[in-house]
Design brief:
By secondary structure, this protein is of the alpha+beta class. It has helices spanning about 10-25, 40-45, 65-75, 90-115, 130-150, 160-175, 185-195, and strands spanning about 1-5, 30, 55, 65. The structure holds glutathione. Glutathione binds next to helix 1.
Length: about 200
Amino acid sequence: MILYGAPNPAPNPRRVRIFLAEKGIDLPETRIDMMKREHKSEEHKARNSLGQIPTLVLDDGTAISETVAICRYFEETQPDPPLFGTTPVEKALVDMWIRRIEFQVMNPVGNFWRHAHPRTAALLTQYKDFGESNKATYAGGLKWLNRELEGNPFIAGEAYSMADICALSTVDFAEWIGLPIPDELENVKAWHARVTARPSAAA
Ligand SMILES: N[C@@H](CCC(=O)N[C@@H](CS)C(=O)NCC(=O)O)C(=O)O
């Protein structure tokens, strides 16, 4: 089994590394050099036609891409500790929160990164106004998350889950590109301190 990824600050491979650390699964990452555009090489596109990372290649050659799908695979092969819920309701709520975090929090960060950040300017045609508009969209997403976290230690409720991993890697990446968590969002700040204190956050 080979896990293709890249070091921080790349947020998606980090999601898998945090997940594996929480599970206690020791699977070293095979690094793809994104600066050298190795993720767009024919060799990597044969594994992932979108030319993205992470990608997990199983021993029978099956290639699994999409971070949540890779983590889902490990959840099924090693259920403990559960990170996608255990009861039907918990599982549905974790799925709900993963999708909400990806759409409401991760997408605006990705759009700002691709369309407004100088480091990506050479890689695509940037629509700067659109990119900049995502700062406000992200701020709105964090405000919403702040309200949702009221009284909850973790995003899906009482238990740490894949939804927290998705949000943690996103807000840390957002900070790296100049979008820190505003101080007044006390619930998000407290949640961030809580999940960052877990050893897995060092992944
Ligand atoms: N939806 C994918 C997104 C993966 C992704 O965007 N990975 C980044 C690295 S963090 C990448 O490969 N970017 C290059 C590109 O999109 O061309 C997932 O959840 O794994």
